[in-house]
Each structure stands twice: as structure tokens, then as C-alpha cells.
Design a protein that fits this description.
Elements lengths: L11 E9 L16 H10 L9 E2 L8 E11 L5 H11 L4 E8 L10 E12 L12 E3 L5 H10 L2 E4 L14 E11 L5 E7 L6 H13 L5 H10 L13 E8 L3
Parallel strand pairs: 3-10, 5-6
Antiparallel strand pairs: 1-3, 1-4, 2-3, 5-9, 5-10, 7-8, 8-9
Length: 257
């Protein structure tokens, strides 16, 4: 049954929150001949007789990006209680992917279109010499970043702007205007920097681009003014993206659902 079809009398719409280590996935969205989060979730569902064609996810994460709060939805006739359903799905999922919570939702719930904002976290640390274990989930940066510049440039990203210099629209004719509601850098006692960003929506690869540009400012490679100009005049900024391994989708927020 396609997601858009009307539920039968025995079907319920389920909303699940997924956590995964993105290191072993070619992103979240199903692809032919590639291991993806969506593909593994659908495989688990089919082991219990799920007749659907596709689950729907709140958003796409790139290859190597992690999640603690990815949201998916699907329709299924399960007769043994939500708790047993959660256990059953996790029993069939691989170790790097888990359903953290599961509940029945309203019949027309859509994890992408009903979302009012999304929150990401990015981790980095400053070291001259590589640290193989730490670098699995954080970007090693050198030269070290300037704290004042880092926090100043983060503030310049707040509000409603045209972020064309920071990502691609999610549809061919889509807008590049987004509203960023929160940008915050925090330094942990172990020296790791964590950046939290929340927006109504994000362009493709927007968060990783935001990180790269902010680090460039904090290393003296470009200025806060150049970033501000890019938001108003589409000025030129350093090219590239921050590595995917430091990024985690933390939460997708909803209004009435």
C-alpha cells in the first residue's frame, strides 16, 4: 500500500523516531544497490508482512551523517501492542540503527510536511595531530578556532535570509530562503566544540556548509562581513563542506502532532 493511499479499517499510521550511526550508510534515503537507513527499516517491516511500498522520512541525511531524532512514518496492521512492535522492529534491525520510540499517529500525519523545525548538532575539536577514534564522530580542525569570532559569526546567521550561498533548494524550483531560529556554539570541558542549529527547514547540505564557513571565519580565512554580504548580496565565500561525520540530526519538531 502506498503511503498516500487511504488507510483500511485495520491499518494504523505509525510514527517512529530513529537513531543511527551514519558511518555505514549511504545516507538515509533508499537507493538501488546501496545500504541506507530507509532500506533497512523497510526490510525490518517486511519481515513482519508489511505490505507497503515506502516509508516516509522527515528529511534526507547525507552519507555518513548520524541521527538521534530522525522521524519516519508508515501504515501497518499490527495487533500485539506498540511495545511489542518496537521490540519486534529492533530485533530485525542492524546494530547501527534503532527505533527509539514508536506510537500510533493521526491518519494524515506526514513526517516531512508537518514538521515546523529541525535541530542539528555538529561536533569538532582542535588538534594538530590526528585522533582516529575521536574523529569518527567529530571533525578535527587545525589551526585552532577563535572563540569570539566563532560566536560572532553564528549570531549573523540568525533570522530569515536567502541562504543560496549555503546550499541547494530541496525541489527544482524551491526557494532558498530559510529562517534560522537558533545558532549556538558551546565548548565542553574536554575541548570539543558543539554547534547547535535550529531552523524551519534546511537546504541540501546547508548545515555542513554553515560549519565550514564559520570555521573559516574563526581561523581568519574570511570575515563576518563577508558572511553577512553572502546573505544579502550572494557574495563569495570559501568553497567546500564540513565532513559529514561530525553532524547529527537531533530532533524534528511538530505542532499539533
Amino acid at each position: 500500500m502506498a503511503f498516500s493511499e487511504k488507510l483500511t479499517a485495520d491499518m494504523a499510521r505509525y510514527q517512529v523516531i530513529l537513531a543511527y550511526d551514519g558511518s555505514g550508510f549511504q545516507g538515509s534515503q533508499r537507493q538501488a544497490n546501496s545500504r541506507t537507513v530507509q532500506g533497512e527499516l523497510e526490510k525490518s517491516l517486511r519481515s513482519y508482512g508489511w505490505p507497503g511500498k515506502s516509508v516516509i522520512m522527515a528529511g534526507r541525511t547525507d552519507t555518513g551523517v548520524h541521527a538521534t531524532g530522525q522521524v519516519a512514518a508508515f501504515d501497518f496492521d499490527w495487533k500485539h501492542g506498540d511495545g511489542q512492535f518496537l521490540k519486534a522492529l529492533n530485533a530485525e534491525l542492524p546494530p547501527d540503527l534503532a527505533v527509539r520510540s514508536l506510537c500510533q499517529s493521526v491518519a494524515d500525519f506526514h513526517p516531512r510536511f508537518d514538521a515546523i523545525s529541525r535541530r542539528y548538532c555538529y561536533r569538532l575539536f582542535c588538534e594538530r595531530i590526528r585522533d582516529p577514534l575521536r574523529e569518527k564522530f567529530a571533525w578535527r580542525v587545525w589551526p585552532k578556532v577563535d572563540e569570539r569570532a566563532l560566536k560572532q559569526v553564528a549570531q549573523s546567521l540568525l533570522g530569515k535570509h536567502d541562504f543560496a550561498a549555503f546550499g541547494s533548494p530541496t525541489t527544482p524550483k524551491g526557494t532558498t530562503v530559510r529562517t534560522v531560529k537558533k545558532t549556538e556554539w558551546k565548548k565542553r570541558p574536554d575541548g570539543e566544540w558543539q554547534f547547535e542549529v535550529q531552523a524551519d527547514a534546511f537546504l541540501y547540505r546547508m548545515v555542513r556548509r554553515l560549519i565550514l564557513v564559520q570555521v573559516s571565519v574563526a581561523q581568519g580565512k574570511c570575515s563576518v562581513k563577508e558572511v553577512q554580504d553572502a546573505l544579502t548580496k550572494h557574495g563569495k565565500l570559501p568553497s567546500g563542506l564540513a565532513p559529514a561525520n561530525g553532524l547529527t540530526l537531533v530532533e524534528v519538531l511538530y505542532g499539533s502532532h
